User: Fold these one by one.
Assistant:
Number 1:
Amino acid sequence: MRMIAVSIVALVAATPALAQTAQDKTVFDTSATDASGSDAADDAVVVTASRSGSGTEVRDLPASVAVLSAEQMEQRQTRLVSDILRDVPGVAVNRSIGGLTDVRIRGSEANHVLVLIDGIEASDPYQGQYDFGTLIADDGARVEVLRGQQSSLYGSDAIGGVIQYITPTGAENQGLSARVEGGSFRTAAGAARFGGVSGNIDYALSGTLYRTDGTPTDREGTRDIGYTGIGASAKVNWTPSDVLKLTGVGRYSYTDALSNDSAFSGPRFGFIVDTPGTHFKNKAYYGLVRAALSLADGRWNTSLTGQVADTTRTGYSAFGIDYGDKGQRYKASFESSLAFGTDAFRSKLTGAVDYEREQFRNTAVSPFAFSGRKSTENWGFVGQYEGTIADALVIGGSVRHDQNDRFADVTTYRVQAGYRLPFGLRARGAYGTGVKNPGYFELFAFADGRYIGNPNLKPEKSKGWEAGLDQEFAGGKATIGATYFDSKLQDEIFTTFPGPTFVATPANRTTRSQQRGVEVFASARPVEQLRFDLAYTYLNARENGTVELRRPKHIGSFNTTVFSLDKRFSSTLSVRYNGRQDDNAFIDPSFVPVRVSLQEYVLVNLNGEYRLSDRFSVFGRVENLFNERYEEVFSFATPGRGAYGGVKARF
């Protein structure tokens, strides 16, 4: 399989005539404009930025948003969604193989990012965040990334922003498609999807598999840390009349992964070492039902939604179950939106009510761990206004009040505006507040001699602003943009090690942390034969003057895709840079952390695909082309160069 991949990549380099397909209408980072330079600019729609239940045209959104399209995910041969998120300005990824994969936006914590999958809140109710290492890319899926405080729309968790992963409906992606591949580290992966329309019903079924023997995460070890991930989803839309639409979504995720522990004695104390028998399993079930009613020629839209997330995580050692937890989230939402005004002054007013109940229990038997069930209920009341004047000035505002039975009630808000000049320049700005309630792990977790939760924690609160400019050139063939952001976080939850026992426990800081920086993007299609996307982020994240952990000052990416003139051959080059960052190392037997610096690194991927016919194609890629040695988390070794190849079919 290595020879297949390398041969295809060699064919990419040897192709003399390259051209971009005219049908590739993709959107990258827009920050309220289309950064792809395609004529899809005015038609690009995002659904995450509004509670109205309908999409918002990107040109009418004065906020920082990125859309990673299905075409981009396919062109970059994305297998784990966290990989392509590295190409979004303001986003940083830390993957610890055999552990959590954290995604941060604008220097926020990973649990400050709200994650939606087809509209379902996907975070683990116990962990308080979503593990992106479990999300395998589906055929035809796309990702929306909304940056900045969004608690006024979604409540707790949306301090840094919102990431929504969206799978296509049967009407959007009809037919049968399948993909199989294999390659380095005894990796095998596949995906299949079937979608279609029958009368007033459209349906879609999809499944994914990713399995690898992996590589050692111990710097000096020989134990390969393997991973098996399975995903399955179903989506059905029934439109019994012109004004009523019923939707059902179901999703299942399963992960079985090996892991290693840190040494607790000897000269390698605190370093990751081979730990035979250690692994974890994670299961998650998600479901959503929605009824949407559209009246007054589509100007008045009302919906009622119910959703559930059920997650189970169990860790094993060589002696049996080491830890375990089970969490559920039940949520109901009522939304109603009215559009009114004239062509010169369009307005939309939306109201929403959310009810949410989260609960958890520890499943591992321990005389020290809390073994009962804890739950939290929350009511949220949302108001949102969106207005467009003369197709140039866009204004918006939202406010939300949350009533919580565990934490103090809180009100959050956001205001934003943008103005487009006739020569393609757009100026925009926003100010917002956010909140993040402590998670059950922070409140009630217990690990004998190592960690104890703090039930007296307060919610974290954030406020921040942003201002940006975007400029289109040559009728939309190229776009550049820059955004400055500045956020402050108070009552930040951190881990402290109080004496005399030095057992880790969370607490609220009395000082403020600040995250500020600049996001830059450029995207162009100067000729039909070439397209490129570039993203860069400068981040200065400090807490009381000290640089915060795992916040690299510089992050950047460059992606370019070319096509042959007959559109049968394509190749994509991806270059991703991650700057130097600090991390904590628990290499002192007192468990007091030692701050260390992780080296910067550059990852280069090169792939190619050749269409044998309208139905079949072969593809290959090389990941980490130059065999970069790096660590994203202290002491977790990462894979070297890998080559993969396979076949795709579509009917």
Number 2:
Amino acid sequence: MTPSNNQQSMPSQGRLLSLKQLIASAIFLIAALLLANLSPTVEIAWVGAILMLTIYLFAFEVVGVDVAAASIMVLLGLSSLLAPLMGLDQGLVDNRHLFDGFSSNAVISIIAVMIIGAGLDRTGIMGSVASFILKTGGTTEGRIIPIISATVGFISSFMQNVGAAALFLPVVSRISARSGLPMSRLLMPMGFTAILGGTMTMVGSSPLILLNDLILTSNKALPADQQMETWGLFSVTPIGIALIVSGIIYFLLAGRFVLPKTKSESSTSGTDPMQYFQDVYGLRYSLSEVVVTDESGLIGKQLDDIETAYRVRVIATKLSGEANRIGPGALARDVDLEAGMVLGVVADPDSLASFAEVFKLKRRPTLRTFSNDLSANKAGIAEVVIPPGSSLIGKSARDVWMRKTYGLAMIGLHRNGETLREGEDIRNMPFMAGDTLVVHTPWDVLPRIEKDKNFVVVTTEYPHEDLRPHKVGWAMLFFSIALSMVLFTDIRLSVALLTGAIGMVLSGVLNIDEAYEAVSWKTVFLLASLIPLGLAVETTGTAKWIADQVLWVVGDMPIWIIQLSVAVLATFFTLVMSNVGATVLLVPLAVNIAIGAGGNPAVFALTVAIATSNSFLIPTHQVNALIMGPAGYRVSDFMRAGGIMTLLFLTVMMLVMNLVF
């Protein structure tokens, strides 16, 4: 967990409540008292009051959500001690089961899938996926969001949605670093579509997996002429597709208004040094991408013919059908320029404009071909000093073919208090002891340069990626084993995923310390601490009582309104208890309501199972809890974006279900 996450978990500690929070607390207190007055039992009254307290703490962030959840868990535990004073025969939750959440299937699954995702990322697989998405979608929010969202939505249709989201978390992190888009603008669309993807097949989410068993159980109590048919694997696919498409369109149209740009998200990129070198050396350089057109005068020339004369420095090239050329051994001054070649150029903006105009080059507004290779966490500008005793003293950059030999593209030379730059023949000047070379280089070159006695690397704060591509076979093996166990066996999800996670540790893909660091412990405490509350809601009869009251109100209304009420009820319950618990509780009620109202009981049961995925309003769903820390989201961010998404979900679900069924 990053320091920013720790700060995020304590937004209001150490200060008094604001006027807004005090007014809200009074309103919630009155609501809790009214609810208690209507409750049929003391147990339901107390659980209702604790539910109101939980919603208040989450909505107004008096403390961080993880602290709030843990406080509620402790409060439920203390009810055993205070039972006589509260008018109870026993505590609201058996203390022997108070901490069951920490060993629950959901929490262990999340821990395991975070470790698996970190292992895949360590081998470079996630970096390759990020590169492909950037290559396909460029670096614009409007193109990247649909690609990420559609991919995650598809994966979560056959894999638990929290698993799909956790696996793509490193991908989104890398895309954020390389594109410059904040994680907070990308993670919420990814997370929401991961949840929506769980509605595409009958194995996409736990409630849908459970539904057919609940239907068969209900059939035992129904007469022969009212028996329900079970649902097929792809029965829900039209609904899932419609929900995913509507979710993507929602973020494309309204994303600029509802998606936050947070200040406390985890750092994903290396520091961009351009401003530093402008301040220190007066080098006003920028990184650009140009394409050699068919009419360009560059065709047939070599790099050596144009760089000094036009004050530009080419640091990467790409010819159609060939790999990107950047780094040691890839580029030299004798490289021939051809039509269609893409050039990565470091230059003063004015020099670049003149260069492009003279040679009829096509300038790209953003990096596209080199968005990965030249991203801030893969390459940048560094300072390297020539020390006394270096064998390079007396030789020039041209003499040693510095760009080709060392992967250092020199763009400035600082000597005796004066900075010389591109266009001043710096590559023909013999090096002197104490010269500071300003170079553009891939970051993975610097560790080797640091060991070379001919240089002293001044730049030490640069991104270090300890990738282990030689472990990719082991990573894919244990990922495949875990995925196969999830899809083709009946073993618990947590056991299947933990098998993959432990396999990655034992095979050396990750060491145990890296595995611990991969886990967002804020997410773990948030989810594990809320599970006892869901247990109290179920075991005290609170959930059934709330359901009965709502359904009593709408019992005589048209079928579609009753179905919508069932969906709204399922949506509410899934915010305060597990979606599985909500499904188990509401499916029998929905079946009986449908039969009494003349509706299709199987469709009403399906309504419950789908609506329990409508969990966007607060970060109680595993996926929302997972993305909250890395993106630096607040509860208010979920309420703003998730409130509209909740209404959209209900609208689209009801329309498609009534059209299809």
Number 3:
Amino acid sequence: MVFLDYIFNLSIFSLLVSTPLVIRSFINLKPLKQVHLGVGLYGGIVSVILVMLSFQQAGYSYDIRYAPVILVFAYFGPVSGFLTGIFALISRLFLSGHWSTAIIGWTNIMVVFSLIHLFTKQLTAVKKCMILYGAYLVIYVINVPIIFHVFRDEPFFHLQYLLFVMLGVIVGVLLIESYVKLHRLNNRLSDMYKLVESSESKYRLIAENTSDLIMLMNKEQSISYFSPSHEMVLGFPTSDLEKFELCKIVHPDDVTMFRNSIMRMFEQKESQTMEFRLRHKEGHWIEFESRCMPVRGETEAIENIVLISRDISERKKSEEILLQSEKLSIVGELAAGVAHEIRNPLTTIKGFVQLYKVENSSIEYNDLLLSELERIEAITSELLTLGKPQAVQLDRTNIRELIENTLELLAPQALMNNIQFNLKFEDAPLIVTAEKNQLKQVFLNILKNAIEAMPNGGDVYIHLNKGLLDECVISIQDQGYGIPEELLPRLGEPFYSLKEKGTGLGIMICHKILKQHHGSITYKSQIQQGTTVEIKLPLAS
């Protein structure tokens, strides 16, 4: 019967210890060590319940009320332990006699437990429980059977009691430690979840706001993820891109290379960089450079490939400009060499013509010959500027007067080709800071191109007006054959000409001269409707 009483007592104790721990696991409360008084009070209530469930033996009350006292002392210190102990003592005194034995034993236990706490602060709670239980065992043996002669002839009775108190302590330690470890594990998992959530949020923030295209491709070469930047760069909504194969928007000339590169990465398990073109929603093609990185799975096999692509259209344009600059440099060197060779004999011819003029001043062709020789000399000087930039003499120049002079020079050629010049301008003079001969050469080249574009005759319209940004705008419009739109960007490249016998150097020199004058030139053209050339030069302050 006594054994069953202990079993019942131990079961109730286990229930009372586990109930608050289970409740706390569902409620985010403060850690146990921050609620000392509350735990001491609850421990006291548990002791009272255990005393109420105790069994009487010769006027003595037997229960495992000291199990919660040991646990509270070990985990929460002497303050909470004293509070639990007081409840246990009062309930014991209230329920049965032999007060002196109970009070003396309780006092010895509290004093010894307090001293043990002072010397075991650095130990874990489990080790404290072991030491406290050992101390309790010694105090019990000395006080109960030896000093007070309680059931001295029944050692099995005392052994049974101490065993169940020990079981109560062990059960309590197991429950509390399990809860503490689960609580720590739960906190770690919660922290890890927050960390993962934060990292995912950061990566998603980067993926959703970068201008680079980020794609995730599997072994079947289907895309499982498109970054939102696809919509901004390609114009397709992400929902539409997910519906069709990526190769449908890859340029037909790049599809084979693209597929082979992807297959090679899955086989060789190495990252790779490649360039390909993707179709914009509006139909034009955009060039991309893509960094492809294989992603390994649990079996070390490549399961996905991450493609990070960047629009390199501007870089390609820069490379073309650099290539064009290199061509210009070569052309400039060649032109400078040719001009240098021409100037040497030209100087000799000019000198002899001047001597001949002194001796034969009556011949009317001398001035004409000298004028043409000076013009040839000026042209060779311009060729030299291609190879080596020279200092130019900038003066205030009236653009209207300069164009009128140019039109006078071209009047005979225009008359022969049945061309009419129509000049319109504002009343206010348009003054720019420029080198007159260089600008005249620009207008000569463009007007001669306009004349040659109209073999059957026609009108050339020249408009002068002041622009919005303190600039002079010169617009020259012909009625010629026109230029295909896709060829307009190539105008100004060396050796590129639309004329059968053209060299491509005339427009190139025009571009160079206007650049030196901080101006610009643009072209608009339609087939069979003519071409409009617009030149802008900053007005003189």
Number 4:
Amino acid sequence: MSREHERREAEQRSGTDAGLDRRRFLALTGATAGALTVGTQPATATTKKVTDVAGFSCDHPHFTCGREVTAADGMVSTVDPIAGGVAARVLREGGNAIDAAIALQYTLNVTQPHGSGIGGGGFMVVYDAESDTVEAVNSRERASQGATPEMFLDDDGNELPFGEAIQTGEAMGVPGTLKGLETARERYGSCSRQRLIEPAIKLARDGFTVDWFLAEQIAANTEKFNEAALETFSDESGALYTAGDTMTNPDLAETFERIKRDGAEAFYEGPIGEDLAAEIQRHAREPEHAVDEADLAQYDVTIDDPVRAEWYDVELVGQPLPSSGPTIVSMILKLLEFLEIDTYERRSPEMYHLLAEAIIVAWGDRMEHMGDPEFVDVPIDSLLSDAYLQGRADLIELGQSVLTEGCFGGGEPNRISTDGQTTHFSVVDRWGNAVSYTSTIEQFMGSGKMVPGRGFMINNELTDFDRTPGGPNEPEPWKRPMSSMSPMMVLRDGVPEFTAGSPGGWRIITSTMQAILFRYVYGLEPLAAITEPSIYTHYCGGISWDAGVPEEARQTTAEWGQEWDATPSSLGNVQVIDIGTDALTGAADPNRDGQAVGLERAGGGQRRT
């Protein structure tokens, strides 16, 4: 099977190829990436009206909404305008960035249940302005204490097909999102749990408007739905919800009411957890290897020191392992610094070749060395050292590829993952607190199984392990699977000036990395940086690409050994905030319905798109 065919099959499963390509969006509306200038409102200007959130409107003088907006007193950038409105209202009412992020994540469980929720996990990178520190709230899912390296093999010792594996109880990790939200609120927040969860309860009970992407994911995933999911995503007549419908989720409203009253304990040790564990066990091939009530009761998050790397005159900061994302983003960017990518023009053959080669080399190190640091001794300091990366950069040359045959570093192609989806958002408040948060249930709609009577989807996160035993990312008891999620901040003199992240499985790393590259090395404004044509590859090569990568660049680099997909893709869904001295600029990727929302307490924010 060709790499192109594998990609198309994967996209068909996840529904990622049906959306409006962001480069095509710009072309259709008569603009080009990089064409934005300060103080202008180009032809791409669009505001998603939000009528579902009490106390919020994009027409209110304190709020400014759009693909790229500037304001002084707070900023939210998210894929979901409803959740963005909830978060902006929290900021307006005096909550800080962490409060707003928590309310936003609760709301996403209602309005974007295909991408994240309390049945999954995530990574929240927090800058606390008062203490001038960066920490990461790690709510990654864990395998059962009964997990084994062989639990994704069939009776003949072969890997289960991916589409089958994701629906097994063995694929469903102990969820961490709720414990992460409560930990972050207690550690950094200023609002009560009751205040922050109430908007989500109201939306679940009273209804919200289904957007085109949720409707698409409902239709694309019905084959893996259990009865509870199918019922929840259908209207009273039994028809699946479609774009523009008003959807309610009374079971989730009741679940959130119980959490509002009793906290995380209701989920991990109470009746919600009992129902969750029962549903996981129901779908397990061998229940002793799947999550049970004892696993739920033992779960807790960790507070991690971020991974850090000096790059040019700034510092890259993000979630450390078990997310490989920010480490690999940093390795690639440092390789490109050593390769003097700033001497080559944007969209040139040289730029794309060096990008691809740096990604391939860094990805080879990911596959060879990385896993959960509680189980694997990963030499992060050495991998990020100038001496090591200079040596890796010396392997890369214009005119030829590091890939001559097979995969870089001797990795096996059967470990390639083209699947996985998440959601990412960022929030910054007027006091300088900042959040970069990526959360997930792994596949769109996760395992496809909803907890009956509880209204939330269960993750299939444990298929992020290598399904064949033997490497650093093999399944083990209580282990966390390696992730590619890349919630990041760029710091100058210890203070954040840019946040970035994206959904997209393995593509998260390259999408986030190129947003930072185009902002800092090529000086693009935030929206232009995230819509600039980007590429994706990995340790076995083969390049997926956004529309807008010049044909000349593809032809020339093909002569140098790069293998390009025949047609373009839509890569990532990047959300960023640029943090200036006097103003905040948020930008939301236009390949879905996301938008930035700025808060100007005196009124009068600036919509730039």
